[in-house]
């Protein structure tokens, strides 16, 4: 039985990753792991029911991934993000031909997160 999915996204700078995912997007840090103090970081972050792993390990994944995250209120999320004053992003909301409202943010490593709200007709 399948229970869910946890994407792994590549990161290159721990401080930039935490500024983007924790401070800007509002995720919380669940745990961090390094095999040794001077080795790459692997960490888990979460917000509500969404879990993401971020990795500095070379072979784990390729930068430039895209994730779609379902949300009930993309406009409220956009307003929350605007209040954080993150200087590298001011995302807008797009109404798509496939009946959704979407807001895309790109992390400092080229990974895109698309927050999508299905519109009712």
Automatic annotation (TrEMBL):
<comment type="similarity">
    <text>Belongs to the bleomycin resistance protein family.</text>
</comment>
<dbReference type="InterPro" id="IPR000335">
    <property type="entry name" value="Bleomycin-R"/>
</dbReference>
<dbReference type="InterPro" id="IPR029068">
    <property type="entry name" value="Glyas_Bleomycin-R_OHBP_Dase"/>
</dbReference>
<dbReference type="Pfam" id="PF19581">
    <property type="entry name" value="Glyoxalase_7"/>
</dbReference>
<keyword id="KW-0046">Antibiotic resistance</keyword>
<feature type="domain" description="VOC">
    <location>
        <begin position="1"/>
        <end position="118"/>
    </location>
</feature>
<dbReference type="InterPro" id="IPR037523">
    <property type="entry name" value="VOC_core"/>
</dbReference>
<protein>
    <recommendedName>
        <fullName>Bleomycin resistance protein</fullName>
    </recommendedName>
</protein>
